[in-house]
Amino acid sequence: MNAHRGSAVLSSATTLKVQPAATALIDNSRLRLFSGSANVPLSQEVARYLGMDLGPMIRKRFADGELYIQIQESIRGCDVYLIQPCCHPVNDNLMELLIMIDACRRASARQVTAVIPYYGYARADRKTAGRESITAKLVANLITQAGANRILAMDLHSAQIQGYFDIPLDHIYGSPVVLDYLVSKQLSDIVVVSPDVGGVARARALAKKLDDAPLAIIDKRRQAHNVAEVLNVIGDVKGKTAVLVDDMIDTAGTISAGARLLREEGASHVYACATHAVFSPPAIERLSTGLFEEVIVTNTIPIAESDRFPQLVMLSVANMLGETIWRIHEDSSVSSMFR
User: Fold this and answer.
1) What angle do CA 250, 161, 83 make, to 5 degrees?
2) What does pTM read for this prediction?
3) Where is Mg(2+) bound in this sequence (predicted)?
């Protein structure tokens, strides 16, 4: 695989057990695919993988800011898949998803599956102080009450969010796409680094697939929301290629401070890997300072051309989402893709 930095979106599905003839086997008579406005390019890629077109839909905003959605074809008795990450602007995109679900339910769809590549409010998954909302659970309730019958989500921030839904949820991972890319680079003397204790399971899983690479952990103390203090590295990184892995990069404060510490501890190269490129300011400035050889993310969240930088590598998860949609539609196993 050739890596094109700064603007490329690379497609990868070789780690997955993808059925090459999937598109030929799909019964399109009852399968419908629609896209919200949050990430249309990703939805178009998924549609191409499935060998079908996105369904027609009217979307507009009234003068007072209210959203209007109308499905422009009959979906009575159909299995409908709505692709909409709840990324910035989170509230608008979430509300659009709810309206799309409600419109499909009222149009007598047989089943409505909300395909949510990025689940907003995922970090509010528990109470850490008094009088707080568990917003991740609230969002789950809203989606369920709107009329969704099933959820397809990618790399949820915490595993317990799956239990917040009272409907079936298929949870898939972006790690096979990232793994394929890292293997293609033939990096030597790798150490996989978790940016905090909470991400150890994720880092360990990646390290195991990279020929049982050693693991290191950054001891981090968070002082406030979006503010972290990095203290020390647990593990040997001197002279090694450090691969920092996380589920998302938001302001990049944690991962940048971690990279700086790894450099100080003697790491020869530092790569950052994450599924979700949230990239809230000042993430771009922090990530493009030269701390990283590459910042590897996927396209679950769209990144504007103006926000791309030389070290950025985007990998496409469209094939993975498309394959999962096909397997759900055909009542096939989803978990077997990751064995």
Assistant:
1) 70
2) 0.90
3) 157, 196
Distance CA 23, CA 20 (A): 8
Burial of 108 (C-beta count, 10 Å sphere; 0-12/13-18/19+): exposed
- The β-bridge partners of 69 are 59
Distance CA 315, CA 143 (A): 28
Binding residues for Mg(2+): 157, 196
* Alpha-carbon distance values, 39 to 44, 84, 116, 118, 318 (Å): 9, 7, 11, 10, 11
* 220 assigned to active site: yes
Q: Which member of 17, 127, 185, 220 is catalytic?
A: 220
Spatial distance between the Cα atoms of 290 and 298, rounded to a whole number of angstroms? 20
Q: What angle do CA 141, 325, 39 make, to 5 degrees?
A: 70
| Token duo for residue 333 | 């196993």
Count CB atoms within 10 A of the CB of residue 123: 15
Q: Cite the annotated binding site for D-ribose 5-phosphate by residue number.
A: 222, 246, 250-254
Residue with tokens 């057990």: 17
pLDDT per residue as tens digits for the range 49-68: 999 999 999 999 999 999 99
